[in-house]
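task queued by scheduler; priority normal; single chain, no ligands, no partner chains; default sampling; output format set to structure tokens
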Amino acid sequence: FKPMLIMCRAVKMALSRANSCRRYLLLLAQDNVEFRLPEMKSLLSVCGCQFQSPQEFNINSPFLVLDIHNEEIARRVMKRTVCAKSLFELWGRGSTAQELRASLTSYPAVHMKPFLQSDSTYRINICTFNKTLSQAEKIKRIDALDYLPFEGKVNLKTPEHIFCLLEDYGTDPNDIPEEPFHIYFGRWIADGQRGLIESYSIKKRHFIGNTSMDACLSFIMANHAKVKANDLVFDPFVGTGSLLVSCAHFGAYVCGTDIDYNTIFGQGKASRKHQKWRGPNENIRANLCQYGLEKFYIDVLVSDASKPVWRTHALFDAIITDPPYGIRESTRKTGSSKEVVKSTVEYAENHVPASVTYHLGDIFVDLLNFAAKHLVNDGRLVYWLPVYKPEYTDQIVPRHPCLKLVSNCEQTLSSHTSRRLITMEKVKQFEDKDEYAHLTEAEYSSYKGHNAFRNKYFSGVMKKIAQEENKN
């Protein structure tokens, strides 16, 4: 009775699958786990496809089953993702070897046949998560697949087709089961772009600063923003231009502003060890030249983000940025604490205006208003929000009537602080009344607790130091 039940379940799955999209299995990297699902949804949207999964995704699992319209879309997604390792056309799955066999034998033969021809070559890989198998155990699992109608020759070095048996032993390294929770078998389609993390590493970059964004997170931000070829992307806190580099890699034209004159022009003290001053060609343009992306570089300006220089017009397809938190870089804007400020008209061109503290709460209000004014419809704003973890709730995430929240992903900084990658999408045209929504409507009111983030960050650091001293 049990074998019949397994067979009926497998046939039912096959029939429902035949009437829908082709099914794929995604093998995800186990870092930045909260960012993986939003990245995949964004990339599918870029390719004109909606996210569809037949099962609820476990955020800690490296396996994600997806329904995608065709293999071309699947390959396009894999040409962008840095959160996924590999993609497979899923031929069968089950919680036991018997269920896997029933699932595989019910898979439509018409989909298998092109890859099992006698004149083809193939290889079968074994991939396990949270458990290591010996070579003998791997060979045993391959031999157990003898019911599959392979007619070609085995070629371990340069096969035409690669198949993979994947076993999931859960996520607890201290409680590894004897048998896997899930078993999958499929045809390898493509690998993700994990290689970009190394090739674009800031360790090898020409021009860096104290807050240069690492390559992996830069590409994740570009993917969350749905950056694509010929887009115009802007970073209002550009720094050393790490985010411009990742966007330019995907074919977008990039520009940015920053209030720090020395950073924009590549002058002053260097951030690298054993190097006192920056060299003559250390600047943002040089970073893009380093990767052959100079043609996508428009320019960067010395400008105050609190006083935008752009005309009120929908200019940008995406705005991605990492505002200063007051930890490694100060939060400043032009202004004076004096009651009467002398007109800047009398100053010379090389005059550097006085600056005052730019509170985090004001930064986010200005940033969201700027995005609402200058993003095209459906354009995205992606930015980092620093938070003090004991006080965090979803209600402190800044809101705006023109922008909807798409995703909110956490990256831990310390035991008491983290930063959250906020992705928002423009859903309506900006109106004058929207600029003051944070003052007139409680739903959009700004959270003043952001202004004290620096003090809370260092208070936690000092407490940790005191605790360690007491232990010693």
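post-processing summary
- Confidence is low (pLDDT under 50) at residues 14-19.
- The first strand starts at residue 22 and ends at 28.
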